[in-house]
Every structure is written in C-alpha cells, then in structure tokens.
Design a protein that fits this description.
This protein is of the alpha+beta class. It has one helix spanning 41-57, and strands spanning 3-11, 18-26, 32-38. It is built from 1 helix and 3 strands. The chain has a 3-stranded antiparallel β-sheet with strand order 1-2-3, with helices on one face.
Length: 72
C-alpha cells in the first residue's frame, strides 16, 4: 500500500493569516485535506517542520515538487 503526505504553506484571503495545508491518502484514490490557520508565516513554517519530522520518523521520504526546487 503506497501512501503519500503533502505539506505546504499557502497564503489565505484574510489579512496576514497563513495556512498550513496537509493532504494525505493512498496513491490512486482521493485524498484528505486539512487546513490549519496561523497568524503569520513563521508559525506556519514551524508547524510544517514539526509535521515533516513526524512523518520522516514514520518512514515517509521527502520528494521534490516538479514545479518548485524545494521539498514538498
């Protein structure tokens, strides 16, 4: 069973709020998505790094997004 987990920090339509977007599921099926709102980019980035560390401990591997030069 191949699974995926995607993390991204994205702007929202509200003033300075930033969203940490988490998507996960099995390859070939629809995914689940959750948005966590933060008052600033620094807090969202800190949360992203925390989730990334958790997923690495569980065996997930970092993959590069073809549209960007950084990790997902």
């Amino acid at each position: 069973m191949k699974r995926f987990y995607v993390l991204s920090v994205e702007p929202t339509l509200f003033d300075d709020d930033v969203a940490l977007v988490r998507e996960w599921g099995r390859l070939g099926s629809s995914c689940r998505r959750r948005l966590d709102l933060f008052p600033g980019a620094a807090q969202a980035q800190c949360s992203l790094e925390t989730w990334l560390a958790r997923k690495k401990r569980k065996g997930y591997q970092v993959a590069l997004d073809e549209r960007q030069s950084g990790p997902l």
